[in-house]
Amino acid sequence: MTTQLTAQPRPEDDERYDNVDIPSTTFVLDNGLTVIVHENHDAPLVSLNLIYQVGSKDEPSGKTGFAHLFEHLMFEGSENAPGSFLENLLKAGASNLNAYTGQDRTTYHETVPVGSLDYALFMEADRMGHFYSTINQDSLDQQRRVVLNEKLQTESGPYGKLHELKLKGCFPASHPYAHTVIGEVKDLQEATLEDVQNWFRTYYSPSNAVLALSGAIDEQTAREKVTAWFGHIPSGPPLSRPAVWVPDIPENRRDVYQAKVPNGSVMLSWNIPPYGDKATILLSIAADLLASGIASLLVKHLVYEEKIASHVTANINYAALVSQFTITATAVPGVALSQIEQSVHDILQRFLAHGIDDDTLELVKITVLSSFANAHKTSAPIAGLLSNSHVLLGDADRYRQIIAIIKPADVDSVQQAAQHWLARACHTLHIVPFTSATAAVQPAGSITPPAILSPAPFQLPAVQHGRLDNGLPLVLIARHSHPTVNIELVLPRVKENTQSEAALLFDLLNQAGAGERDAFEFSSAVRRLSASINVSRQDQTTTLSLSCRPSQLSALLPLFLDRFQHSTLALSDFERQRGVMRDTLTGLKHNVSGMVSRLLPAVMYPQGHPYRKPSVIEGTKASLERVTFENVQQYQSRAIQPVGGTILIVGDTTLEQIVPVLNASIGAIPWSQGTERASDRQLSPARKSQVFVFDVPGAEQSAIAASTIIPGLEWPHEASFTMLNDVLANGFTSRINLNLRENKNWTYGVHGQLLNDVGSRIHSVQTSVQADRTAAAMQEIFDEYRALLSDRPVTADELQEVKNAALLRLQSSIEGLGGLNSMLSHLVRYQLPDDHWQRHQERISSTTVDDVNTLAKELFHPETLTWLIAGDWTLIQASVQALALGDIHVIAGNGDDLYETHVA
């Protein structure tokens, strides 16, 4: 059976709306496997999205968490592909490689170069058809420990058990959605080998699966390859599935959840129909009307007018049996949650009674459809859209029915859907701050894998240069496959006079008025053009960016110039945003990994260094109190000026088309050349090891960073160091990750962090582990460094694996506009030549074992590592001290004193 879906002009297409029409072909193998193909040759890549129609809703009592546990087991290797599934596919150059389990389905996905497609199909087919015989007690025990550690890591966060409480409040105990996806500890601990073998036989079969392929592949090739690899697998048993069930929530169903947060929140949840139901699609419009953007009803009233909330959201969790509509509002200090709750209900009741005007509804529809279109421009999200449309809606092209409901939606239909479903009883959850510092610690024939073919050499599309009439340089990469153009005005970053003024300015600019428009009018004007305008900052630069359809560029540029030249800040917004940042800092002290990130620059860079700035929030509580509105206004006048910089353009345009348009706008502004950026001074690595500790009482996990100073990215060894980092600590197959996650099961992951800084920068091995394994994990990291420099240097096989993966992954960098934008931006921000990425590819290819091992000995010295740990010091003190890795410094207070004497 084959269904051909082609892109054709549609009479209802309207220039106001972004059009989404993705041609695809669907066919079904004799064993029941459904295959969907979308062809697009923008890049030599293919994305695979394989859904098994099994999730937590299918778990009987006593077997909660089985679907998610089995997701982990499926990465353990199969009969003809032994070893780690992740490791094998990463060697094939896979990116976007992961899996997730939800209430309704389990999804596996990856993107591979075309030369690795046969290998990826073989791997997916082998674990579908030849996994049963490899399920053993050791792999079950190992992955059970990983899942329990994941559960601990998730639930140890401030909102860790919030979702479970919400589910129990919204669903009766017998409802398939009444338990969490990750399951109960008792059920996971009692899972037997026979249990998981039966689970596989029941659900992991071709007849219960949907495979989507999107990218550089045609339908005939897909049919041949999928049939060759999957066609021999027997069909599965017939299955019964839970029916749609939208339960009523009892009147006055209320719960209170204590969380380590600075301010409380109110969460209101309604049960609504499943995904695809017309009422639910109309309610998605209502959610945006209520709380999307600063001009939306709840945000405007609660945040900007009443000033009783710092943040408001309205969203829908779509699912197959029942969806949920949730409004969440976070209170500002001193405001009672009962007041927030009453205000939300009052505004909601006014909306249900009086609806909204046509103009506002039209603006929301434009935004919704634009967001949908922008989210589905590359192969991976397209594959996900097609497979999910088939599973949840019955056919790959049924997403078009969603669009067909949104486009003609009018005020009455949206209001009627909201009146019918949001006037019902809801579950009310008050999240209240909790300040206590105590917590408890808790079979077929052999199949030969196909060859992985070498990729075609990576080639960045041509980089073109121009200059506007005012002398402003312009750099462009053309990509005509999608009707979108992205423009960035990249300016040199201006030094702040007062800590926190830059952080506040850039947060305020993205929600400020400009020109003759106030903040609400400016936001609406941009959204009406299906566009976006944003301001951001980086270590070395400030960026103003826009994204729109080429046909809307002329209309958008006046708004862009207003943002650049005439942004208007409000004192009330300054006070509100300062409060939001203050609350973020207060809540951060309970987040172990967040505190490691925040404090790492302070323990690595000396006083006065420009990189010694706190991350997450750039400033301290004291600096937030000191900074004035006038400070921020003065910084705005210096930071956003026509001085220096470059315009970056990526998308559906040419130099001949866009230069005249830009000359009529930004090119008419007098522009002066900037001064050359001063070189940041080189730092010497530490001469002795030190251990810094941030105490988080009650923390069930510890975050660890083992760090050293290395040269900036302008050095000639970047490619070699990238390979070295990948072998040691970065990625699933790295030595330290395989040790701590796969062998020890102490962590959910290890990362080799490497910042894009010039001059000198931090290399850091970071992970979070269960608290009782903190010292042991530090010792393992230390030993891995020592082994790298002595008896276990990087081997030829290890180097070849990471080289192949890096070269293959380069292909995925150029698939979408976002990737092209990032690569071009990298060239401009760091003043690199146009052929940098080609030369980087060549350096990767030519890197030798001697190169990386020599580099390791030059840069890594385990006895001089700087350690930063965030965790419960009373629990880990004795064991960390016993390591004797270096002098121990317990950081006082919230760590702000480390930054207070430094002015950015």
TrEMBL record:
Residue ranges occupied by any Peptidase M16 N-terminal domain in the UniProt entry: 35-156
Any single Pfam family the record assigns to this protein: Peptidase_M16
Gene Ontology MF, one: metal ion binding
Span of domain Peptidase M16 C-terminal: 191-365, 627-805
Superkingdom as given in the UniProt entry: Bacteria
InterPro entries the record matches: Metalloenz_LuxS/M16 (IPR011249), MPP/UQCRC_Complex (IPR050361), Pept_M16_N (IPR011765), Peptidase_M16_C (IPR007863)
Sequence similarity: Belongs to the peptidase M16 family.
Name listed for the protein in its UniProt record: Insulinase family protein
